[in-house]
Each structure stands twice: as structure tokens, then as C-alpha cells.
Amino acid sequence: MELGHFGFTVDPAASDVGLIENLGFGTLWVNGGQLDRLDVLTGLLAATDHAVVAPAIIPPDVFTPAEVVDLFRDAETAAPGRLMVGLGSSQHKPLSALTDYVDRLDAIPQDRRLLAAFGPRKLDIARHRFAGAIPGMFTPEYTAHARSRLGPNPLLAVGQYCVLDTDADTARESARAPLRFLMGLRSYTDSARRQGFSAHDIGTLSDTLVDSVIAWGTPAGIVAHAQRHLTAGADHVYFSVLSDGSQPGGLDAARQLASALGVRR
């Protein structure tokens, strides 16, 4: 499935999703925290015309394989070829549990599902059982490492948090909002350690950590950061815009980033 080079994370309940789609983003992503029910995704398909819709992520500890298969079948009936199933969990569980779960997803073609994979063993599963991987909070250097582990053919879609703000203090404060939660999860802290961040960086959410994994600044600067992921081997980068309310968000942010992308869309 072709995701395009760039995607954008949307609020599936917002009235402007069609306008964001028409800015040229190949894929519209939905954060896992917004998936209190799976028909949110079929609703987004109905509200748009052509973009791929992808959840990042459907958590296996919340939704059963049967529910995910039913979602896929409903999506194929309503909007054939437009749903990419993103699967993953913030909970640290044995890999055998994931394998058992995937065994029950055979009704969903392998090329229509992605795995949130950060470490080497999950990347191996993404290579063998999925179309590819959806990592996040990666530096471009670690994107290159993930590409090497996946091999040349699987899809590598990298999630990029960003803040449209050139003031370092306010931009970093917005950037730390998701980090305060994510760096309390083992998968993210393990990933940060693998990328070379110290216990001090992780514990204090240091400027070094923030500036390395979250892009902030001008639209052109954020696009340049995303382009480094593509150069490092990513096939697709999707923007998740953070805002304190005074910083651009939603449709405004999407327009600014789409303008900066230009012909790279």
C-alpha cells in the first residue's frame, strides 16, 4: 500500500479532516489515545475521499483480534484499499503473546498491517509478519539503524512529533508534554537508551533529548528534519503536531507544513 512520503495526524472527530486530506498528505493517522472504539476509523474513512487512514496504534490489550478483523472487513466494504492497520501496545508483554495475536489476524493481508516496533526483536517480527514498522521518538540516525534491521523492502513509517514555534523555551515545554508520559513506558525508555541517551536525559527530559527526537521551529526546519528520516531510509514520515493553544495546531499547522513541503508532497 502506498502511504506517500508524508502524513499528518488528525483528530478524527474534527470537521476539517477533508480539508487536511486535500492539502496533499498521503496518509491520515489517528493516535492510539483517540481510539476508544474502532469505528472511529471507519468514520474517518467516510469523512474523507482518497487518503489512506492508519491508526498508530490499535492496542492488542484493548481490542481482540476478532474486533480488528471486523474493522478491516467493514473498511474494505466502505472504502476498499484505504485502511492500513497499525498494531502495537505500550504494555511490556512477552513476544509470544504478540505472535499468538498476529496468528489470529490472518484475514488481514500482511501488506495491510504495520507493527509499532522499536527494538530489534519487534523489528524482526515487523519484517516477517507485517508490511513493516511504525516507530516513533527516533533520531534520524536510529531510523537508519531500523532500516538496516528491517532490510530494504519492508515499509518504514516514522512518527515525528513537532512544534511550530521558534521560541526554545515554549517549544520545548510543549514538546515535553508527551515525553512526560512516554518516557514512563518501558518500550520508549529502552528505545531512548538504545539511541544513546543517558539516564539523566531520560529522567529530566533534557534539552538534548527533546531537541533530538522532537522537531520544533519553522515549518521549513521541521520539514528538513523529516527529510533526514527519509534520507536515513524511512519510506514515510507523519507529523503529530503539539500545541499549547497559542502555537499552530490542526488545520493551521497542516497548511503551514504542506506549504513547506512543496513538491516533496
Strand content: 15-25%
Report the sheet with the most strands, covering strand number, pairing sense and barrel closure: 9 strands, parallel
Q: Mean pLDDT, nearest integer?
A: 95
Give the helix proportion (percent range).
40-55%
Distance between the termini: 17 Å
CATH superfamily: Luciferase-like domain
Q: Which word captures the global form?
A: globular
CATH class: Alpha Beta
Number of domains: 1
Instruction: State the helix count.
Output: 12
CATH architecture name: Alpha-Beta Barrel
Count all strands and give the number.
9
Write down the Rg.
17 Å
Structural category is alpha/beta
How would you spell out the order of helices and strands?
A: EHEHEHEHEHEHEHHHHEHEH
Any low-confidence stretches, pLDDT <50, length ≥5?
Answer: none
CATH topology: TIM Barrel
InterPro entries: Lucif-like_OxRdatse_MSMEG_4141, Luciferase-like_sf
GO molecular function: oxidoreductase activity, acting on paired donors, with incorporation or reduction of molecular oxygen
Organism: Mycolicibacterium diernhoferi
Protein name: LLM class F420-dependent oxidoreductase
Can you walk through the features of this model?
By secondary structure, the chain is α/β, with parallel strands linked by helices. The protein has a single domain (about 5-265), classed as Alpha-Beta Barrel (TIM Barrel). Helix content is about 45%, strand content about 15%. The chain is built from 12 helices and 9 strands. Strands 1, 2, 3, 4, 5, 6, 7, 8 and 9 form a 9-stranded parallel sheet that branches. Helix 2 (about 40-45) links the parallel strand 2 and strand 3. It is globular, with a radius of gyration of 17 Å. It starts with 5 loop residues before the first strand and ends with a helix. The mean pLDDT is about 95. It comes from Mycolicibacterium diernhoferi.
